From TrEMBL:
Coiled coil: none annotated. This is Ventricular zone expressed PH domain containing 1. One of its GO terms (cellular component) is plasma membrane. Belongs to the MELT/VEPH family. Its main location: membrane. Residues 408-418 have a biased composition (Acidic residues).
């Protein structure tokens, strides 16, 4: 062991402990494991809890050792000794007692070591030793330690889920005990330990209302995985899940899970069809999910099938065309399973009309006349003797179809053309039917695809082939539908115009509904009202760059002053902020863009595509797409916005910017207060001066403060060795060299605002304390403004020189 380490640890020499930081990391790297073993012996001694000197020595030595391990990259070499000391803390009390909320001595040791070990979550040899110990800390009642462990274990779950899988039970119990941060671990370990999580599934789903929105998304992801892999396990939770459908941010994901459950256990959804129908009526975007659940329940029995068919057929004539394919597949599955529901004429009904309204009417009548053994289509078909050319057979069917509907059947496209269109015409010939069908496809592509799929399945059934599961590509649907199609000049109908508006995206023959456009269109007023209030609380970044995308991404945000006055703090530079909430910032930027636009934005807009590109860089496996995520909830929750404000306060944004109602934006301090700019920029005129206490020792547990007199003027923060203005100056702090100014966090038991703050330069850190919170705020704002001004001046000079 190095001689100085031997002296400090052997003699518990606090006076020499600080000298350890003067040693080179390479000079002590070989003896770090020995030092850790000796620290373990000291911390386990009977008098350690009452010996302040030993505790101070241990804390200083641990800080020096962990620093050396990080700098030399020797964690694998010393991991055994480091984890051994860490684990020994579990043998002692870690929970604060009584009113004293300060960490116990062994909790402090564990806390100091935690980050050094667990920040190496991607190193298997270290994690093999560390994870079992980390999981034990979760159960020891120290909230701060548990929170830190959870944060690192969440990262470990991304990199090495296998190491956590065997601890699934302990992790799940910790989650149920209130450690919600660990929810993000459960989807990672579920494939390895599904039975363990199945055992607690009821309690996990029941805790949804207690969670914040981000935590809910982790639980939703777990529920989706269970629904995909073991849907029967969720059937007992169906009542609970249906109860959560009222939460807009959860509705779509939960409906998707319920669809999976309905396929495996349709009986579990029988009692909830009525609320699902109400949901579909209120939110038509979810009708496809509701239809699939009705289709699954209908398979149970003919009675259930009849009830489901009545509902599905009622939708067929009223829903948007984009849902028709899904509806017809569900209807077809039920009528194939129970042919007697339509008297055996289902296939003919599907073939006879390219009008979904007509199909819906005919199906509805057949369901009402269920007792009739043969439909009139069958009679007409039988009168032909089952023979004749295919054209003649189709002609007979068309005539029977017209008899059935009478004058009530109208062509959908003639209805869409408006009052100036010619009167509705019946289809008396095959050639006319062909022309109508061709027009229908031209005017409404989505309807043609659905119809073609149904017809193909009907034909396959006639030929003795199984049509289930047939999927047609767009190209095949349109290239094989009708022979001898010719290109015709025609006026653009309302149906065709609908294809060209912002609600559809895609290229060529086919287009899909633009989910984002529809969402923004339907919520423009709400978004506008929200943004009027939001922009006065949260600034909109001028630029956003995504970094560290492998871990979910961090948003590097830049803010500048739009006014750029003579004394502007950010005319040539920007205020930069790094946030671990990129998704929230992207959502806010999208809403702000929409609030500035008089028309709904769509995924085709360049500004939206740029935000989508940023979103893709933040995506982890299993995350929602940009359009899906942006439509989960119309506006962010208040709690999320409050968190953003807190982060902006922590980086002192509001010292430097303020919202100007006159300008309608966030201006820098100088542009917002032009009357103060003259005073601030007077040569030699102090911006603020007075007494502050400076900390003399860097370690936070040693409280040695000295009062000095400080003056903030120009580009410098000057301070004197004594309490008077007239004493000799020390070397001043050059403000242009200041990297950041931060508030020193207070201990949890302290009340009020912090009084201490740190000034970081490239060579030194200063810890200062004002006499009270009010003076601390004044000093912090003045220093931040002066630092920004010094850097802006430097940027302008550099630009001028260049």
């Amino acid at each position: 062991m190095h001689q100085l380490f031997s002296q400090v640890l052997g003699q518990r020499d606090l006076s020499r402990a600080g000298d350890l930081f003067s040693l080179e990391d390479a000079d002590i790297e070989d003896c770090l494991s020995q030092a850790l073993d000796q620290i373990k012996a000291i911390s386990c001694s009977p008098d350690y809890l009452t010996n302040d000197n030993d505790q101070a020595v241990v804390e200083i030595c641990i800080t020096r050792i962990t620093t050396a391990i990080r700098e030399t990259g020797s964690i694998e070499r010393h991991s055994t000794a480091l984890v051994g000391l860490w684990e020994s803390c579990l043998e002692h009390n870690l929970t604060p007692q009584g009113e004293n909320t300060e960490d116990t001595p062994h909790a402090k040791i564990a806390s100091d070591i935690t980050s050094c070990i667990l920040q190496n979550y991607s190193c298997p040899s270290v994690m093999v030793l560390a994870v079992p110990v980390a999981v034990r800390f979760l159960q020891r009642g120290n909230r701060e330690l548990s929170r830190n462990m959870s944060s690192y274990l969440s990262l470990a779950a991304i990199a090495k889920a296998d190491l956590l899988a065997e601890h699934t039970e302990a992790i799940t119990i910790s989650v149920l005990g209130g450690n919600h941060m660990l929810l993000r671990v459960l989807p990672s370990v579920y494939p390895k330990q599904p039975d363990t999580i199945h055992h607690h599934l009821g309690n996990l789903t029941a805790m949804m209302p207690q969670l914040e929105s981000t935590e809910q998304q982790h639980l939703i992801r777990l529920i989706q995985m269970v629904a995909e892999q073991h849907p029967l396990m969720l059937s007992p939770q169906v009542p609970t899940l249906v109860g959560y459908l009222g939460n807009q941010s959860l509705t779509e994901a939960l409906l998707g899970a319920l669809v999976d459950v309905s396929q495996a256990s349709p009986s579990s959804l029988v009692s909830f069809l009525s609320p699902l129908r109400i949901l579909g009526q209120q939110c038509p975007a979810f009708l496809a999910h509701v239809a699939k659940i009705h289709g699954a329940v209908g398979i149970i029995s003919e009675t259930h099938a009849h009830s489901s068919l009545v509902y599905l057929v009622s939708l067929l004539g009223s829903m948007e065309h984009s849902f028709h394919h899904t509806l017809l597949l569900e209807v077809r599955a039920l009528t194939d399973r129970y042919p007697s529901l339509l008297g055996g004429c289902g296939k003919d009904i599907y073939r006879m009309s390219n009008s979904f309204t007509a199909i819906a009417r005919l199906l509805g009548r057949r369901l009402e006349e269920k007792s009739t053994s043969h439909c009139r289509v069958d009679e007409a078909f039988q009168s032909d003797g089952g023979g004749g050319a295919p054209e003649q057979q189709l002609q007979v069917k068309i005539q029977a179809f017209e008899e059935k509907l009478g004058d009530t059947v109208e062509d959908e496209e003639e209805e869409a053309a408006g009052e100036d269109s010619p009167a509705p015409q019946r289809r008396y010939s095959l050639s006319q039917t062909v022309r109508e069908e061709r027009r229908e496809m031209r005017f409404n592509r989505s309807k043609s695809l659905a119809l073609h799929a149904v017809r193909s399945r009907s034909i396959n059934s006639d030929e003795g082939e199984d049509g289930e599961g047939v999927e047609l590509s767009t190209d095949s649907a349109f290239s094989n539908t009708l022979p001898n199609q010719h290109s015709e000049n025609h006026e653009v109908s309302p149906a065709e115009r609908k294809l060209t508006d912002g609600s559809l995206v895609g290229k060529g023959e086919w287009a899909e509904p633009d989910r984002l456009y529809i969402h923004l269109r339907d919520n423009m007023e709400m978004i506008g009202d929200f943004c009027k209030v939001m922009v006065q609380q949260i600034p909109i970044p001028e630029q956003c760059v995504i970094e560290d995308s492998s871990r979910g991404g961090a948003a590097k945000l830049s803010f500048s002053c739009p006014l750029k006055g003579h004394y502007c703090l950010y005319a040539k530079s920007c205020f930069n902020l790094t946030s671990r909430q990129p998704h929230l910032w992207i959502h806010i930027m999208l809403l702000h863009l929409q609030s500035k636009s008089s028309v709904p934005l769509s995924t085709r807009d360049e500004c939206v595509q740029k935000l989508g590109s940023l979103w893709e860089k933040t995506q982890l496996k299993g995350a929602h797409s940009f359009s899906m995520a942006m439509t989960q909830q119309t506006t962010p929750h208040k709690k999320d916005l409050d968190n953003l404000q807190i982060q902006l306060e922590e980086v002192r944004f509001f010292d430097l910017f303020g919202y100007s109602e006159e300008e309608g934006g966030w201006l820098c301090f100088m542009c917002n207060n032009p009357e103060k700019a003259t005073v601030v920029n007077q040569e030699g005129q102090p911006l603020i001066e007075g007494k502050l206490k400076e900390k003399q020792v860097r370690w936070k547990f040693i409280k040695r403060w000295k009062t000095r007199y400080f003056t903030l003027a120009g580009n410098q923060l000057l301070f004197r060795r004594g309490k008077s203005k007239d004493e000799l100056d020390d070397i001043p702090i050059e403000l242009s060299k200041v990297q950041s100014v931060k508030v020193v966090a207070k201990k949890r038991r302290d009340r009020g605002l912090p009084r201490a703050f740190e000034i970081f330069t490239d060579s030194k850190t200063y810890v200062l304390k004002a006499q009270d919170e009010k003076h601390a705020e004044e000093w912090l704002q003045c220093i931040n403004v002066a630092v920004a001004q010094a850097k802006e001046r430097e940027n302008r000079e550099t630009t001028t020189y260049l």
